[in-house]
Design a protein that fits this description.
With 191 residues, the chain is of the alpha/beta class. Helix content is 41%, strand content 10%. Strands 1-5-3-4-2 form a five-stranded mixed sheet.
Length: 191
């Protein structure tokens, strides 16, 4: 390949494939907002591609990494991207695509550790590409400093509540189970 592939990690370069030949899955259930695509592009700018996307050989269709493909193509103008190929049938490819997105969505942050790491990166001016803006980090730090739970002299318990609208009962049930598993006191409401 005569193209400069320095934006792809050296070990992944043998997996580089022309982006022009790749297609996003037409029925991708995962939505990528402009903010999400910009965050992916910022990460790629800061770190390059460090993990491949997954494509189904039949049709050159992405089944994991569609947002990465779109950011690389539409925002960064890359000519190639590293790809792992699969010969999955349509049903297996769809199941994997859902599993890939859902397993990531089920993860959660350890807020104390995240805030500590972001504060360290912020002090070193290394927030580029991590997906959090300077304003978001500042707001998290300020919220922690002004949180009455961090004030040992506060004798009056404070209750914080949040109402989250879910698109359907299944989404509500999944969210309730995730929050409960994290030890968050919560209950479901139907109106």
């Amino acid at each position: 390949m005569e193209n400069d592939l320095s934006y792809i990690a050296a070990d992944l370069r043998p997996l580089a494939h022309s982006i022009a030949e790749l297609h996003e899955h037409s029925h991708n259930a995962r939505y990528h907002s402009e903010a999400n695509l910009q965050a992916i592009a910022a990460s790629y700018k800061a770190f390059g591609q460090r993990k491949p996307i997954v494509c189904r050989r039949d049709g050159n269709v992405s089944i994991a990494g569609s947002g990465q493909l779109r950011a690389a193509r539409d925002i960064l103008g890359w000519s190639h991207i590293a790809v792992v190929w699969t010969d999955d049938d349509e049903q297996t490819a769809t199941a994997f695509a859902i599993a890939d997105n859902q397993t990531g969505a089920l993860a959660s942050w350890n807020n104390e550790t995240l805030l500590s790491q972001l504060a360290e990166l912020r002090d070193g001016a290394a927030l580029d590409g991590v997906g959090f803006t300077e304003d978001e980090v500042k707001a998290m730090i300020d919220a922690t400093r002004s949180d009455p739970a961090n004030d040992e002299t506060n004798d009056i318990p404070t209750i914080y509540q949040i109402l989250i609208e879910c698109q359907d009962e299944l989404s509500q049930s999944d969210l309730l189970m995730r929050l409960t598993d994290e030890g968050i006191k919560c209950r479901s409401l139907i109106s």
